[in-house]
Design a protein that fits this description.
The chain is of the alpha/beta class. The protein folds into three domains: 52 residues, Multidrug-efflux Transporter Regulator, Chain: A, Domain 2, CATH 1.10.1660.10; 76 residues, Methyltransferase, Methionine Synthase (B12-binding Domains), Chain A, domain 1, CATH 1.10.1240; 119 residues, Rossmann fold (3-Layer(aba) Sandwich), CATH 3.40.50. The protein is built from twelve helices and eight strands. The strands form two sheets. Strands 5-4-6-7-8 form a five-stranded parallel β-sheet, sandwiched between helices. It has a three-stranded antiparallel β-sheet with strand order 1-3-2. Helix 11 links the parallel strand 7 and strand 8. The chain is globular, with a radius of gyration of 21 Å.
């Protein structure tokens, strides 16, 4: 976690240091004290404050953000722009767009459903048509994964009593983006969640459920190469969830109607918006 002095934060958001310290003392900005008694403010708290109090960032580079990042009054992320950024492999531009959207106060999950997912679908079509190279599509995936990890780093930490969740993708499913998008979506909703990664056998995910007893386990399913193994893995995880009272959420383009009928789960989500609605219903 990165920490900043009141002077740095004041300069980044264009206010006086005295005002910044008063906000800290009033509890509007969480901070820690160094051994010498000096205030230090976590980056997550600074950006949460900016997001909720409609402050612009006048010097975002002080906070480790791309120059030009600010807090717009409204954020509209256009599909065509994201496709262009991904084709060019412009990681800084992608990060700036995502951070701007977060700072606008808008939830992130709608752009996963309506912009980022469709953009990668379009990149796949462009590659099939010979309009871009395969390295461009792979590079787009790499920069997006890195940016999403950075977005996770700037989200406010959940409270100690927040409901816990775990997630992953199963064996021979190497796609990291979907499970990262779920993790960000749930973190924004206040869940204490963690993605365990990709390409994991059902036996170890079942063990993770037994060991951690999360309120919810999610499986992101983008690719299924062996139906029988997939069903067996899901059975192991479902049994573990039943034993400890964990909800099991499944989603992803790899879960065909045939496979859906062969496995057990609490909820299936076509889109992240479906997951959000489900989480709202379970509190």
């Amino acid at each position: 976690m990165t920490y900043y002095s009141p002077k740095q934060v004041a300069k980044a958001i264009g206010v006086s240091e005295a005002s910044l310290k008063r906000w800290c003392d009033r509890g509007l900005l969480s901070f820690v004290r160094t051994a010498g008694g000096h205030r230090r403010i976590p980056q997550q708290e600074v950006l949460h404050f900016v997001r909720t109090n409609r402050h612009d960032l006048v010097a975002p580079e002080i906070l480790g953000l791309p120059a030009g990042t600010h807090k717009p009054q409204q954020s509209t992320v256009k599909l065509e722009r994201i496709i262009d950024i991904l084709v060019r492999g412009d990681e800084k531009a992608l990060k700036s767009v995502m951070v701007d959207h977060y700072l606008s106060g808008s939830p992130l999950y709608p752009i996963w459903d309506t912009v980022v997912g469709p953009a990668f679908h379009q990149l796949g079509l462009l590659w099939e048509q010979g309009e871009i190279e395969i390295y461009q599509e792979r590079l787009a995936c790499e920069i997006c994964v890195r940016v999403l990890h950075e977005i996770l780093d700037i989200l406010r930490e959940p409270t100690a009593d927040a409901p816990p969740a775990l997630g992953a993708s199963l064996s021979e499913d190497p796609y990291a983006l979907p499970t990262l998008m779920v993790e960000i979506t749930m973190r924004e909703m206040g869940w204490r969640c963690r993605s365990l990664g990709t390409n994991l056998p059902g036996s170890t995910l079942a063990r993770a459920v037994y060991d951690n007893r999360p309120k919810l386990m999610w499986l992101s399913i983008s690719s299924v190469l062996d139906n029988e193994r997939f069903i067996a893995d899901c059975d192991l995880i479902w049994e573990a969830c039943n034993q400890v009272g964990t909800l099991l959420a499944l989603g992803g383009r790899g879960l065909t109607p045939e496979l859906r009928g062969a496995v057990n789960y609490t909820v299936f989500c076509d889109r992240l918006g479906d997951l959000v609605n489900f989480l709202d219903s379970v509190g």
